Inverse folding.
């Protein structure tokens, strides 16, 4: 899915040229992701409904996304959206594209927002007090701990992360299986830091690879115990309290699988 914020900023806010300059400032470390994001969101001066009308026209959604989501539902794979964006926007996009019933199966782990009815202010309510605003690595650790608590004694959750951009970099080392969209910043980061990953062009590619992972896991482990693609470095986590943890649903199959 195309970045929802970029669609809004380019068409209704600071503009594509300014947004690209700000993105470069993040990449060079001149400014933090949170600081730049606050400037971008602060550049919007339109009501939410007007902004969403533009997104409906301009947002480019991966052609394989709906099929991939159906695949997850059919195989009891919990699919969560973990985002540096704003939850109200993401929920509306998913409800519109997938339908409210199907979209309700997706938990969104993202920042909240205060959006004035007249559009005079778009203010992110950051999930974490950090330079990232939303530390996806921390959210993944919380999610892994919660999934482990829900698992049966002989099960261990397999965490799969699918990403592309700057905000995904901290989460890259936390997954058992990492997918990075080809040609974008996350793939560059993985190459620079020698992090194992699978490149993809569309969710059709991701679906095919996960089918292969499921087959491999069943053949090697019978779906019990440590997953075949288990990443020991990503599993050096500490149990978090229920107050801190993300709410995850139990998965009723032989191997807990979580997609982030």
């Amino acid at each position: 899915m195309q970045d929802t914020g970029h669609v809004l900023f380019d068409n209704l806010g600071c503009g594509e040229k300014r947004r690209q300059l700000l993105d470069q400032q993040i990449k060079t470390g001149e400014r933090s992701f949170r600081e730049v994001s606050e400037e971008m969101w602060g550049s919007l001066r339109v009501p939410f409904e007007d902004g969403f009308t533009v997104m409906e026209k301009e947002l480019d959604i991966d052609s394989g996304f709906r099929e991939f989501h159906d695949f997850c539902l059919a195989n009891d794979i919990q699919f969560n959206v973990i985002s540096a964006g704003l939850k109200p926007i993401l929920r509306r996009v998913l409800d519109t594209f997938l339908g409210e019933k199907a979209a309700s199966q997706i938990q969104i782990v993202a920042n909240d927002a205060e959006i004035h009815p007249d559009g005079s202010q778009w203010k992110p309510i950051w999930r974490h007090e950090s330079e990232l605003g939303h530390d996806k690595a921390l959210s993944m650790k919380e999610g892994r701990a919660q999934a482990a608590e829900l698992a049966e004694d002989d099960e261990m959750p397999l965490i799969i992360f699918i990403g592309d951009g700057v905000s995904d970099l901290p989460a890259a080392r936390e997954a058992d299986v990492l997918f990075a969209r080809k040609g974008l910043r996350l793939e560059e980061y993985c190459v620079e830091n020698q992090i194992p990953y699978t490149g993809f062009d569309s969710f059709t590619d991701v679906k095919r690879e996960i089918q292969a992972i499921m087959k491999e896991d069943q053949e090697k482990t019978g779906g019990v115990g440590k997953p075949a693609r288990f990443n020991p470095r990503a599993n050096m986590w500490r149990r978090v309290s229920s107050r801190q943890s993300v709410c995850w649903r139990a998965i009723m199959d032989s191997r807990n699988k979580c997609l982030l």
The chain has ten helices and seven strands. The first helix runs from residue 4 to 12.
